[in-house]
Amino acid sequence: MSLGLLDAEVSDVTTVTPALVLDGLVKSFGSTRAVRSVSLDIAPGELLAILGPSGCGKSTLLRLIAGLEAPDAGRVRLGERDVTSRPAHRRKIALVPQEGALFPHLTVAQNVAFGLPGAGKLFGLRRAAQRPEVQRLLELLHIQDLVERMPAQISGGQAQRVALARALACDPEIVLMDEPFSALDASLRHSVRTDIRETLARLGVAAVVVTHDQEEALSLADRVAVMQCGEIVQVGTPDEVYRAPASSEIARFVGHAVLFSGRCQAGSVGSCLGEIAVPDGSEGDGAVMVRPEQILLVPPTPGLPTGEVRSVTFYGHDADVTVELDSGESVVARIQGDLPRGRVSLRVRGAGCFFPAA
Ligand SMILES: Nc1ncnc2c1ncn2[C@@H]1O[C@H](COP(=O)(O)OP(=O)(O)OP(=O)(O)O)[C@@H](O)[C@H]1O
């Protein structure tokens, strides 16, 4: 999907005032340190995903940004304004909760209109539901045919679109979304994700999406911040985080990783898959990582590592093939096309990542 104008803005964050700045945020609950000194900048119009396992502090961080929790230390800035001590309703930040949380007694259009200024009372809400801003948001999110329905009469995917439309109706500077697609099935996720991403890009609204789903983070965001144990451990474009993870833990979390320990010398590491090239500058003992899709399976070939196909997990678009090498190690390759059987040889395509031993 093209972000057009936004690409220029996002790529040059140093010359643009960030839409949101988090500076050293800390939050504990008793002895649980949920968020430990998190600092992040989000550019205008940028979509940032915070990716981390359950319990790493993602929702707490979102609640600190929204003003629903007060930090023990650190600041939150929206544009030029420090909003750390402002209550949630005075921050111009909209939070879309996990299940959308629509008002069950209001129609879809009234739910969306709820965010408009002066639309608090039901009488005003009926009129506000007719306003062009509401119609436009409904159209952008492809839910214009649902205006008169009640939340109980729409699907989960439609409810998520309504929840985002309601959040956008407040004209927020930032939209926060907490696991917005977790209740949707795989095919619906894709279409809702695409529409939400396109709507945010069209309106130029910056957003922070919290997820534990790496595929979701990589496919949705302009940048991904990986969070572990209350800390942001890497921030980068989806491509950077996937291809050049900062540690073997991040490599394993952000996709499938094939890891071997070995010694790096003169730009390559010896492994059971032969010499694996790694970026210049690496040296010494550590671990080398390749992604399963970098491992090619070829007919048995003298001089190449060879073994027996032990299992195949077929996903439709590709398949994971576990090969037990004659040297004893098991390796998983991700392949497309014909499913192999029997004996195969393995070759690594492209460079690996090297993580020096601590
Ligand atoms: N109000 C609270 N009181 C006490 N502990 C809390 C509170 N809120 C969160 N925690 C703890 O803080 C840590 C981080 O929780 P948080 O909900 O932010 O994680 P998360 O990454 O969003 O998890 P999940 O993906 O499962 O929602 C957890 O150990 C959690 O138990």
Features:
Rossmann fold; Transp-assoc_OB_typ2; OB fold (Dihydrolipoamide Acetyltransferase, E2P); binds adenosine-5'-triphosphate; 358 residues; transport; alpha+beta; membrane; iron transport
* Unique bound compounds: adenosine-5'-triphosphate
Strand order of the largest sheet: 6-7-8-3-9-10
The percent range for helix content is 10-25%
Q: C-alpha Rg, in Å?
A: 24 Å
**Could you say what the CATH topology of the largest domain is called?**
Rossmann fold
Query: Helices and strands: which structural class?
Result: alpha+beta
Keywords: ATP-binding, Cell membrane, Ion transport, Iron, Iron transport, Membrane, Nucleotide-binding, Transport
Protein name: ABC transporter ATP-binding protein
GO molecular function, one term: ATP binding
Pfam families: ABC_tran, TOBE_2
Provide an overview of this structure.
- Keywords: ATP-binding, Cell membrane, Ion transport, Iron, Iron transport, Membrane, Nucleotide-binding, Transport.
- This is ABC transporter ATP-binding protein.
- Residues 20-254 form the ABC transporter domain.
- GO terms for molecular function: ATP binding.
- It holds the Pfam family ABC_tran.
- This protein is α+β, with helices and mostly antiparallel strands and 358 residues long.
- The chain folds into two domains: 5-248, Rossmann fold; 259-356, OB fold (Dihydrolipoamide Acetyltransferase, E2P) (Beta Barrel), CATH 2.40.50.140.
- The protein is built from ten helices and 20 strands.
- The chain has helices spanning 5-11, 58-66, 108-113, 122-128, 132-140, 156-169, 186-203, 214-220, 238-243, 248-253, and strands spanning 20-29, 32-42, 47-51, 73-78, 81-82, 93-96, 174-178, 206-211, 223-228, 231-236, 258-265, 268-271, 274-277, 284-290, 295-298, 306-314, 319-325, 330-335, 343-348, 353-356.
- The strands form four sheets. A six-stranded mixed β-sheet has the order 6-7-8-3-9-10, with helices on both faces. Strands 13-12-11-14-20 form a five-stranded antiparallel β-sheet. The chain has a five-stranded antiparallel β-sheet with strand order 15-19-16-17-18, with no helix packed on it.
- Helix 5 (132-140) crosses helix 6 (156-169) and helix 6 (156-169) packs parallel to helix 7.
- The chain is globular.
- Residues 1-5 have low confidence and may be disordered.
- Residues 29, 32, 34, 52, 54-60, 212 line the site of adenosine-5'-triphosphate.
